[in-house]
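Q: What structure does this chain adopt?
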Amino acid sequence: MANMDANKSAGTEEGGFSLVDALRRPRTWVSFALAIMLIFFIFRSLNVSVAETLAVMRQTDIAFLFLALGIFYLTFPLRAMRWRMLLENSDIAPVAARASWASLSALMEYIYLSWFVNVIVPAKLGDVYRGYLLKHNGKVSFSSTIGTIFAERLLDMLGLFTFLTISGLTLFGTHLPDEMQWLFVVGAVLVAVIVVGLASLRWLGPSLVRFVPERLKARYQRFLVSALKSFQPRILPNLVGLTMLVWLLEGCRLYFVIESMHRLGVDLPLALVVFVSLASSLLTVVPFTPAGLGLVEGAVTAVLVAVVMMDSHVALAVTLLDRLINFWSIIVFGLILYLVSKRR
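A:
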């Protein structure tokens, strides 16, 4: 797993990152074609009318929708705070020498730009881009920076699956609906990969260096040291606390999206909303389409219809409104930031 990250980032460290080149790659166009086919399949399989779905969306209470938008964007300073802790723990941006490139606002900008890249190109290339931004602006080790982003992704997946399991047990106990079992299988597999990867880094990482190509050994060692130092026990409680708060806010975002449909009598318990929201976030990890485009829309709508027994038009409207916040708003605001940013 560590070897894969070292190889993936090597080309960026040597040649930089070009968003235009990433958009031109065939796999980017293939991923968007796949997303479009998935969305078409959703409409066909659910037998929904575009006109009726839009009519439902027009009944939205805009105030709740803006509240959901605000909650979503509140997660970015929290994510920046957590990343700064990881950088400081890895001695990349020590407190005593913190400069403008490592300020909270700068880290928020890097994170948001990386999310923008993630929603327009597949394979989570935004994470590599974020590492390059920090290297370019802070003149720090790219491999070490990727190590902290790797650690951050591990925290996110563990926090996500923990909340998903808790909310699932609260709702269904040990009798999980058949429609939901595949989500837990996906989550369990991802967590297993993470645990094995982390254990490999901790116990086998130094030994694996002899299998790394000579030109990558120094980068691999910097990545390894940075990833392991990120999990030092002294800041682990703070990292876990911030991670749990981020995922709780992700659940609250969808809760207020659904509350915006109160004129239609839609009312769901918070535990159920958190469960659906986290299931949605879990699918964005799958790298086949940009930020899970098509996969998320299909899965969340199917869950709301099959498990919650929500009308298909209302379910699709909820899903599209939520994606308006956590996908399309990033494209709009991210493009503006990308064009005006001096740090890109």
